[in-house]
Amino acid sequence: MGRGRAPCCDKSQVKRGPWSPSEDLKLIAFIQKYGHENWRALPKQAGLLRCGKSCRLRWINYLRPDVKRGSFTLEEEETIIRLHKALGNKWSKIASRLPGRTDNEIKNVWNTHLKKRSVAKKSLNSSADESKPDSSITSSFSSSSESFFSNERPNSPKTTTLGSEFNDQPSQETDKIEQDLEKQVSNEFIIITENPKESSVSLSSIESNIATSSQDVACKAEQLLASPLSYLGSYDFGSILEEVDKPNHLFEIPWESDYDFCKLLDDDNFGSFQSNEVQLSEFPASQNVILEEEIVQDVKVTQWPHDFENKFGVVGEIKESNKDHFLPKNYEVGPEIDHTQTFDLDDMRTPEAELDFGYIQLWPSWS
DNA sequence: AAAAGCAGCAACCGCCGACTT
DNA sequence: TAAGTCGGCGGTTGCTGCTTT
Fold first, then answer.
1. Among A227, A198, A200, A199, which residue's Cα sits nearest to residue A212?
2. Residue at shortest CA–C1' distance from B21
3. Residue at shortest CA–C1' distance from B9
4. Which of A61, A82, A191, A210 has a 20 to 30 A CA-CA distance from A101?
């Protein structure tokens, strides 16, 4: 075990707070191209003035292609409650059972919604149990759980003490429950996040899905678009898969030399992105394809606003009053950019990389 | 209409374990 | 074996927007 560990980065030299769109773009573009073998080195190589941890968190919790956004379904909530009962505050383990959901998101949902709900439910049941002569903490706990855990054995002994439902201690039956959950959950979901080569392999499987969809778009469109990755019609899987072939020596991009990225944001592209968002509600989506007409299939084009909404909850979050100012919730104006410096992304602009930028231009997560 | 309180959530922080040197 | 590095995890914070007074 190491001691006297140096801080992960010089806090005075890194930017903190909400991520700007240009930072997101840099991170996405870099990871698309080179992957993320070394988070510590990544910010410098990508031209980001961020801590490596911050980059990792941003990627995992927000930018990763398979992150599912939007409200949790009832099923997901029930799963979280059940898993939390079994595992305690093992958010990452719980997240691994919920494809597309991150530990941070689940943690937030638990702390803001589910915990309260469970407390309310429990107190309700407790007061009901008070009328019963043999009521006890464990029995009320059990009864409070039954509606959620329909597959629980009603007579199984509850050794859990009051409070364990909400704290770190999983029940003594954790192992068994975990095993049961393994079986149950593996039948319910494709577990993407447990794949050690997470992005590459999971994406390749999605890639094959998309290939399949091209053969039978009409039948598959809905299913495809319902998948967490479905919006990636213009995603460049090829370059993602290039992660394994990344060069040994990565270039370092000087900070504030992101002219091209800023162009994406500041000039026509981002402008059209904004305006298109408004137009989408007024015109057929086919008129609002952003530089992707030749790439994105019609069916995907007409679906993508819904897809965005499903995936990122963006469309639904646009306030009526702000529709003409489609800007991210945490959008902030980036630092002054020296446009006299050029940010040479030529090596990214392979034909495949064009698709990357299509993806980026469609990127709606800055909500 | 304004202020206060609350809720939701993105991001940060510090610790830990695995791995490398 | 000890020191160092890194990724990952869970707890916490603080900002933002919404609701209530």
1. A227
2. A2
3. A108
4. A210
Neighbours of A291 (CB within 10 A): 17
Domain ranges of chain A: 11-63, 74-188
Q: What distance in Å separates the CA atoms of residue A78 and residue A149, rounded to the nearest whole number?
A: 8
CA distance A83 to A238: 36
| Residue A178's pLDDT band (cuts 50, 70, 90) | low
Separation in Å: C13 C1' and A137 CA:
33
Per-residue pLDDT band for A111 (boundaries 50, 70, 90) equals confident
Q: Give CA–CA dist A168/A271, Å, rounded.
A: 47
Whether A16 CB is under 7 Å from strand C? no
Q: What share of chain A is helix, strand, coil (3-state, %, to 5)?
A: 55, 0, 45
Per-residue confidence band for A273, with pLDDT thresholds at 50, 70 and 90 = very low
> Are residues A269 and A291 in contact, defined by beta-carbon separation less than 8 angstroms?
yes
- Å from the A10 CA to the B12 C1': 14
Measured CA to CA, the distance from residue A224 to residue A55 in angstroms comes to 29
| CATH number, domain A11-63 | 1.10.10.60
Q: Hey, CA dihedral for A286, A70, A196, A247, is it positive or negative?
A: positive
Measured in angstroms, what separates residue A320's CA from nucleotide B11's C1'?
27
CA distances from A92 to A50, A88, A96, A99 (A): 24, 11, 6, 11
Please identify residues in chain A, positions 13-42, with a C-beta within 7 angstroms of any atom of strand B.
15-19
Indicate yes or no: strand B within 7 A of the C-beta of A156: no
Give the position of tokens 């505050």.
A89
Q: What's the number of CA atoms in the CB half-sphere (13 Å) around residue A63? A: 24
Considering only CA atoms, which residue is closest to the C1' of nucleotide C6?
Answer: A40
Q: Bigger pLDDT: A250 or A97?
A: A97
Nucleotide nearest to A62 (CA to C1'): B10
Spell out which residues of A between 39 and 68 contact strand C, using CB within 7 Å.
39-41, 52-53, 56
